[in-house]
């Protein structure tokens, strides 16, 4: 019985790995078909909108905190952009899409999706998706701009108050640390002189 189980395991394991490889290959092909220029342009547009948002926000902070050290806000802006843009790398998106598709669809469904998107109707859907993406991006940009114009002063003020709260707390902690260090270094603190 043990021999039969071992034999079955040695046959089934490679077959299941081969099936996973096939699903990943199909998901990769599907990604290649649907990842059209409009999606690439949309990602660039989103990056540009994020850069503009960060730049505008940082300029507001510069106005609120003119006493900040030289270069502080430049470095802050660089850090925000670096972390956001690195998190949006295409390879990461592609890998997530492939993993998601492999988990959500079986082989026959992946093949059907590929057949559909390679068909005339599928190509029309992809073409119209570009227009939908463009219109949706314009709408989202306009909505965000309107929301930001309404709320930016409040957000900046709330951020300023939050910073003041924490700066005061850090100052208090720093001061208590200095006092504790000076107490630790004072003579006769443990009665060693007696």
Can you describe what's shown?
- This protein has 194 residues and is mainly α.
- 88% of the residues lie in helices and 0% in strands.
- It is built from 6 helices and no strands.
- The protein has helices at residues 2-34, 37-64, 72-87, 90-104, 107-118, 120-185.
- It is flat.
Descriptive tags:
194 residues; mainly alpha; 6 helices; 88% helix
The major sheet is characterized as:
none
Overall helicity: over 70%
Order of helices and strands: HHHHHH
Shape: flat
Mean pLDDT: 76
Instruction: Give the uncertain stretches in residue-range form.
Output: 189-194
- Beta content comes to under 5%
Short account of what is shown:
With 194 residues, the protein is mainly alpha-helical.
SSE order and pairing:
Layout: H1 2-34, H2 37-64, H3 72-87, H4 90-104, H5 107-118, H6 120-185
């Amino acid at each position: 019985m043990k021999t039969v189980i071992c034999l079955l395991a040695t046959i089934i394991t490679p077959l299941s790995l081969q099936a996973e490889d096939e699903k990943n290959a199909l998901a990769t092909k599907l990604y290649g078909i649907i990842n059209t220029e409009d999606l690439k342009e949309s990602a660039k547009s989103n990056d540009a909108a994020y850069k503009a948002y960060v730049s505008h926000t940082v300029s507001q902070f510069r106005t609120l905190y003119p006493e900040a050290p030289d270069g502080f806000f430049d470095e802050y802006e660089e850090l925000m952009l670096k972390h956001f843009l690195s998190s949006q790398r295409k390879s990461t998106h592609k890998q997530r899409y492939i993993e998601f598709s492999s988990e959500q669809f079986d082989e026959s469904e992946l093949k059907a999706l590929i057949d559909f998107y390679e068909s005339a109707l599928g190509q029309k859907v992809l073409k119209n998706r570009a227009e939908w993406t463009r219109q949706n991006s314009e709408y989202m940009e306009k909505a965000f701009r309107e929301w930001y114009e309404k709320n930016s002063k409040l957000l900046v003020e709330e951020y300023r108050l939050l910073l003041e709260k924490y700066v005061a707390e850090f100052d208090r902690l720093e001061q208590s640390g200095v006092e504790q260090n000076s107490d630790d270094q004072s003579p006769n603190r443990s009665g060693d002189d007696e």
